[in-house]
Amino acid sequence: MRPGHPGRDQPARGPHSRSGGHAGAWSxxxxxxxRAGSQSGPVSARRPVCHRGLCTEGKRGCAGRxxxxxxxxxxxxxxxxxxxxxxxxxxxxxxSHQRVQGNGDGKSRAGPQGKRGAGRFQGGNAAVTDxxxxxxxxxxxxxxxxSGLAAVRFLLRQGAVxxxxxxxxxxxxxxxxxxxxxxxxxxxxxxxxxxxxxxxDLIVISPGVPSDLGPLQVARSAGKTVVGELELAxxxxxxxxxxxxxxxxxxxxxxxxxxxxxAAGVPHWVGGNIGRPLxxxxxxxxxxxxxxxxxxxxxxxSFQLETIQSFxxxxxxxxxxxxxxxxxxxxxxxxxxxxxxxxxxxxxxxWAIVPFRDAWLDSRRGRIRSKLLRFGTAQGGAGxxxxxxxxxxxxxxxxxxxxxxxxxxxxxVRLRGxxxxxxxxxxxxxxxxxxxxxxxxxxVLDSFGxxxxxxxxxxxxxxxxxxNDSKATTVESVLRALESFAEPVLLVAGGKDKGLDFAPLRKxxxxxxxxxxxxxxxxxxxxxxxxxxxxxERVRDLDEAVRKAWEAARPGEVVLLSxxxxxxxxxxxxxxxxxxxxxxVRDLLGETEGEGSGVRP
Length: 601
What we know:
By secondary structure, this protein is α/β, with parallel strands linked by helices. Strand 8 (202-205), helix 4 (214-221) and strand 9 (225-228) form a beta-alpha-beta unit. It contains 17 helices and 24 strands. The chain has a 9-stranded mixed beta sheet, covered by helices on one side. A 6-stranded mixed beta sheet has the order 19-20-24-21-22-23, with helices on both faces. A 5-stranded parallel beta sheet has the order 7-6-5-8-9, sandwiched between helices. It is globular.
């Protein structure tokens, strides 16, 4: 076993071990890097391997193209060390008593001596699979959205025999599909053929593909291995991972964390469920030199976590939990359990950042084996306090095992709502664990303007302010948005029905909303369940909703798009819906594109 490493801690055999066999060798007849007929649990035993281009090893890194075995060692300090790092020349991890400190320019340094500069990459998983395991294997990719396309490109590059299937007749631009075919990928579009599933050695599914898809169920029954793009990309990754999940706030948290690491000079890469699949990291060919990333920051969804086997983040963060995706899951319990898998493969050497109080999570914390860091609001008294908390207008961070508090001012934070402060608290905790200096973190708190489509200020005219919160596709996210405003709100909501319970909106509507404009597939049910909570008007579409809201608005009021539904009944995604809202507002107010848009201080 390999204690203390941020990757996997399986005993092993390597490419040149006495027991024979290739480290990455895989066949349907035996378990290997991917376990047949299963979606969860630890990967089978093999020796940790540092693979070309994915880590630093030994003396300044693996510059060659060969595979080299790492030496067992215990990892110390906030940034875990690559299994291949050894000797004085490799740059050791930071001891627990050598905390990361800042220098004069806000960059990060390790320990009081400052021997290791902010840019040195040290990090990795304990068992990196050799991509040669894919060569010549028949692999089927199901779903050709961003993740699926990235998986196809990676697999083709590794010499796999790739087929791809999508129920849509044109899931990507024609030139993209033609390029895949020219590179050797066989496409099956507009349908799924069972024969493709049964002939594959390995099946890779995109996050949006339902796990109960008929051909997938048959393939699993036949013993076929099914993994997601996240798990596949993870197998070939050597950098430690910070993964963030939760019902709301994931993207804001991940983006803020990336900004903090950037301000601190900590090399990093940000991706995941934000339109940049983890597989893109491999496709971008980030090299093994000291300028490579020291940590990978990922947003991960419940859909992605459904299909993990060995994915093990060094830091796993859980922002919050509320009803969502009940059109995919039978109930909140099933949805929450899918998200909870983010902690499944962690050990005592890893970190879990969780809410101080979360009714669902509190009863299951005994199942989390990693070290806990809790965030929340201090509620008086000198009893149990979260390690990172909001207290007297400051975010207070206490170093794990320490006795001294660090205070971060929030007076200049530009984001509205306590929920956004909680997102920043999670980012701050992860950034400190990654070695970011306090000065760099404070600079991001002072300047971070939030994200498009998340309580985004659009324009103001005649005392009426417009906000775009198109990303609010859950009831809980709408509740948090409404709580961010002291002004009366004219709320624009509706879209594709996800099967959520709208009843929790009744009291906040009565307290914050003067008029509610409903459009889309869910409008009828929303109007029925919310009747009497506010004045309700059903409209034909978003265009009519925006026009009528502007006509009804009074000075000092807010027009807020916060739908509580997904967008797929009328739009490609929430971004298209949000952009349409902003264009409609600009047209109504007579503004040119970009005028008055942005997040207000």
